[in-house]
Structures are given as structure tokens and as C-alpha cells.
Amino acid sequence: MEFENTLQNGVTVVVFKGLRMDAAAAPLFKSNMVDLIHQGAKRFVLDLEAVDFMDSSGLASLMSSMKTLGGSGEIAVCCLGEKVRKLFAITRLDRGVFRIFGSTAEAVTALSSTSTQG
Amino acid sequence: MDTIELSIASRLELVHLMGLAVRGICGGLPLTPDESDAMELAVCEAVNNSIKHAYAGRPDGVVRVTLAVDGTGLVLCVYDKGTPLEDRQKLNNDLAVARSIDELPEGGMGLFLIRNAADSVGYKAGEQGNVLVLRKAFRKGS
């Protein structure tokens, strides 16, 4: 499983490069996020454009990362395909839990303008 | 009923094969693309549960899936021979909208997604193992 982590305007952009964010991939994603959080990153944009399939383990790894942040940062998601967008809607995680953006640039702009640093 | 049986070893990295197989079969049935996607997700969730909870991550188990089809619908069964689900109430739990980070659920979503995909869900544990049964009716015009 590959991730691409870059820093853009103080926001850490994580590009998930696998097709499936599932129970097999979730532990590696979570580990990547925990490493970044321990290095001091607090604002994240997760680019899920490549993801064709996500299950509850993928979602749980996102929520676990949010809990690791402990309320001192934010994880936004962007570039969701139709199936992944529906999953966020069915599980009601699009109701204020995760901000969802159409593009990475849009998400970075929104998060870089928030007051949280890192 | 026409029936097909599929099985994988209890390894998470194999679950996507089961999902793809079930989606492929559903694609040839009178189900909408959304319904086929939901069934793929449901079978992956069910097989994940068998591997993670019934077999506690042990890779030497087998998860078997059968699909039986007639003119009215599909019955999908997921079998394992691991530890049975203790809290059957989990099959009926709804998902609340989280109002804070602490309320974010990290478990229970899989069974919610399984219920969302099917018209009915049943579970039985016995000497021969455990089985989760999903029923999905074919709608008119699907």
C-alpha cells in the first residue's frame, strides 16, 4: 500500500494510492497517519480519488486517526468517487464529522485558513 | 434455486476476491448497480467479521459463501467455524450521528452496512459453525 504525503500551505496532504481502502489496507493507513500526527501534523487532507472501494474498516481507520488528533486538528477528505461518497452518506459521516471537498486545492485552501497550526 | 459456492482462507488480503466475485454474480442478476455495490460491500463486511472476530485473525480457517438465486431474489450465506457472535443485539443496532470526536464509532458499522444492503439479515450458531444469512429481493424494474 502506498501513500504520498506532502505539505501544502501548512496542510498535510495524504494521497491514498490503492484502489481499496479496506480491512487489509486500513492498518497501514492508520499507522501512516499516527506517524504523521506524532511528527506534529494536525491538519490533513486525504485525497481518495484512486479509491474505488471502501469498507467500515477503512472508515474506522479515519475515525481512529481523528481520535488520535484529539480535537486539536482536522482531517478533511476530497476527490471522492460516487461509491465512496455514498458510503460517507450512508454512515452519516458527511454530517459534520468530515468536511468533504471536490478537489485537493479547495480542501487545502479551506484548511489552511483555519486557525489550527500544523 | 440455482446455487454457487465460494470459499477463501481466513486472510484479510483475500477478502477483495470474494467481494469481486459476488459483485460479478450480482451484475448478472436483476439488481441495480447500487444494489450490486451494496452486496459487494456487505459480503466483504461479513467475511471481515468472520476473519477478525470468529477466527480472531487466525489464517487457518475457511470462510465459505453461498449464493442461491430464484426468480424472486437472492440468498447469500456466509459460513465460518470460529467463535460465534455473542452479542446478537449488534445485528440490530443503528448508527447514531456523532456529535463529538468521542462519539465517533469505530465498530459496529460493518453490521449496519450489511443490514443496509439486504432486506433481511439472520444469524445462526450451532455445532456445524456459524452462518450469517442475507436475503435480497429482486424489485420490479431492477
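qc> Residues 3-112 of chain A form a domain with the Transcription Regulator spoIIAA fold (CATH 3.30.750.24).
qc> done
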